[in-house]
Amino acid sequence: MASIRRTHSPVYLDRQYENGAAPFSPSSTSSPSQKTSTNKHNSSDPKTSRRGPWRRPFFQFLAFFLIGFLLGLTPYGQIDDNTTDRFNFELKPPIIEQSLQKREESLQKREEVTLDVDGVRLTKEEEEMDVVPRKLIIVVTPTYNRAMQGYYLNRVAQTLRLVEPPVLWIVVEGNAASFETSEVLRKTGVMYRHLVCKRNTTRVKDRGVHQRNTALEHIELHRLDGVVYFADDDNVYELELFQRLREIRRFGTWPVAMLAPSKNKAILEGPVCNGSQVIGWHTNEKSKRLRRFHVDMSGFAFNSTILWDPNRWRRPFSHPTRQLDTVKEGFQETTFIEQVVADESDMEGVPPSCSRILNWHLHLDALDVPYPQGWVVQKNLEALITLK
Fold it and tell me: How much is the mean pLDDT over the chain?
């Protein structure tokens, strides 16, 4: 039988095969034994096949990580390396460091002012001025149980709240401290001290004498340094008055406008001044020859060191400075002032020329009418007109 043998067509030699396969040829076909030998040869080095793909990216990642870590530790400011302490580093941004240096230089620098006077060269160094603290104002207010007490205390408190600190308000009551007064003082927002006068004031016409003496004893005992002012609760005060008190060195006085007891005219009582020098007094004819100093109780103030440091002011009296209850009513002011100053040369007119009225003394009390307990009316008021 004749055999037919087909030769390979040359057309198939140029055909491309998928997946990179070689064209069919006798040599391309291998036996299973050849495939097994080839697989064994390829898997003979497993280490080379495992570390080949990931080794290079790993080292690249490690290199970039180290570079970023070192850049993060590098400071962007300036490092001050002191030769005395090599391990003491202080990091400062350049802008902040320059501002701190300029500030230190401005504080240490002293400005020099040069003047030429008649060919003589004068140099003045301007030192940094120290801030002088404000004087303490010690306001003494005697008070007692009456219908208008709450209104008066709140009115004085609202005025003192507007005064620049420091201000100390000493409120003195007789016999015992009332709950109503304590409540008013706690709500004012003013620094205060609530005192009680233990003296029996039932037989004294002016109960405020012993109450003021209680405050003076407290000031002397605690050596309070400031300007003492007797401010009765029924007076009306200008805010400028308390600002002027801090200008007093030893003893200051000013005119006071008063409503006469008859309430039909006003009386002006106080000093007549030439600048800050006291040269006379405003007064009425009846008391002109009897009183030495014609001043109202709320028309003067004095330095508190007069009470506990008499050697500083060379006072002639060795006994404590107190108001007297043995003199007639209306003479407590002049007898007290005589213990503080010798004459008008030791006084200061406030304000200069004493040209302004800074407080008013009014007599508007309803006598023998107490306030309700706790400021609460227990019974309803009787209605005079019924509502329809």
Answer: 76
Q: How far is CA 114 from CA 105, 120, 176, 231, in A?
A: 21, 10, 66, 50
Residue 313 exposure: Cα atoms within 13 Å on the Cβ side: 23
Give dist(CA 32, CA 303) in Å, integer. 125
Q: Which of 173, 180, 269, 333 is catalytic?
A: 333
CA distance 28 to 21: 10
The domain ranges of the chain are 137-361
Q: What is this structure's pTM?
A: 0.63
Q: How far is CA 104 from CA 84, 90, 99, in A?
A: 22, 18, 9
Q: Is the peptide bond before 351 cis (omega within 30 degrees of 0)?
A: yes
Higher per-residue confidence, 181 vs 34: 181
Kindly report the CATH number that applies to the domain delimited by 137-361.
3.90.550.10
Between CA 267 and CA 46 the distance in angstroms is: 122
- Orientation angle between helical segments 149-161 and 179-186, nearest 10 degrees: 20
- The closest alpha carbon to 173, from 227, 225, 221, 233, belongs to 233
333 part of the active site: yes
- How many C-beta atoms lie closer than 10 Å to residue 219's C-beta? 22
Give yes or no for a cis peptide into 166 (omega within 30° of 0): yes
Is 234 a known ligand-binding residue? yes
HSE-CB at 46 with a 13 A cutoff on CA atoms is: 1
pLDDT digits (tens, 9 = 90+) for 240-261: 999 999 999 999 999 999 887 7
- Distance (Å, whole) CA 364 – CA 259: 9
Nearest Cα neighbor of 344 from 261, 288, 270 is 270
